[in-house]
Amino acid sequence: MSTRVAVVTGSNKGIGLAVVQALCKQFEGDVYLTARDVGRGQEAVESLASEGLKAFFHQLDINDLNSIINAAAFFKEKYGGVDVLINNAGIAFGVADTTPFAVQAEVTLKTNFFATRDMLTHFLPIIKAGGRVVNVSSFVGTRTLNQCSPALQQRFRSEDITEEELVGLMQQFVDKAKKDEHKQAGWPDTAYGVSKTGLTTLSMILARCLSKERPNDGILLNAGCPGWVRTNMAGSNAPKSPEEGAVNLVYLALLPPGTTAPHGKFVSDKEVQPW
Ligand code: NAP
């Protein structure tokens, strides 16, 4: 049997780095710390080495389709696929940031929704039987869902929404934000929140597809929330350390063989959350 492999995006710092650190201790196989910047990634690998932990490195910028395609080809060639994928890379504009909302909407959706979807498009076909996929979403995405118009809420919660319909809705949010018409169209005033509503919904759609298309492969795909965590993104007032934020994500990544649930859920503190 080939060596098992776990891949974590955006893991040179913050929650992603803490996930790699935990996987180095708990996952039986090779663990890949990936980063868009080679220097920052290698520095993080060295910081783990100084703690006696062995992580491997591969460059991966989720906003660069070639980088995604190269990485997927590398894991297919070297390991025959991927056993554990944690889509952690994400961005957020600070609350005090004065960048126009139209730009915040486009840039935030680009990374957190569209680029993460590109990752899933190219990596899901190489996820091995028994694989685990964790999309790092947020409780903010659930709060944002509840602030959408009833019509949008109905679509995000429906069992028959397709990936194409969801992509269309996310693009509609960006287009409306550019014309300052998003509120009239039923969207709340949060680009980060909408990106995570989209990512959680995408996780539910793709889990249903996996169950249908690969029913015997036992792959579990979920959206997970780390909680509110002290990182560059969330600042120093958050209650959880990155290590504590990693716990729920690592739990989802290491659901034991033969487990059938959770799958296609939004999970916080190891509990399936209402959607
Ligand atoms: P962070 O400290 O800002 O780290 C974000 C990581 O993502 C960095 O390594 C960053 O790389 C990377 N990244 C950004 N864009 C990328 C791209 N295009 N390609 C590859 N990597 C990219 O943030 P964090 O708090 O650890 O957040 C990690 C995840 O948890 C995010 O998805 C976030 O939305 C989610 N989350 C966080 C909280 C919280 O309270 N912190 C709560 C809920 C969910 P660079 O160093 O190169 O910028």
From TrEMBL:
<dbReference type="InterPro" id="IPR020904">
    <property type="entry name" value="Sc_DH/Rdtase_CS"/>
</dbReference>
<keyword id="KW-0521">NADP</keyword>
<dbReference type="GO" id="GO:0004090">
    <property type="term" value="F:carbonyl reductase (NADPH) activity"/>
</dbReference>
<dbReference type="InterPro" id="IPR002347">
    <property type="entry name" value="SDR_fam"/>
</dbReference>
<dbReference type="Pfam" id="PF00106">
    <property type="entry name" value="adh_short"/>
</dbReference>
<protein>
    <recommendedName>
        <fullName>carbonyl reductase (NADPH)</fullName>
        <ecNumber>1.1.1.184</ecNumber>
    </recommendedName>
</protein>
<dbReference type="InterPro" id="IPR045313">
    <property type="entry name" value="CBR1-like"/>
</dbReference>
<keyword id="KW-0560">Oxidoreductase</keyword>
<comment type="similarity">
    <text>Belongs to the short-chain dehydrogenases/reductases (SDR) family.</text>
</comment>
<dbReference type="InterPro" id="IPR036291">
    <property type="entry name" value="NAD(P)-bd_dom_sf"/>
</dbReference>
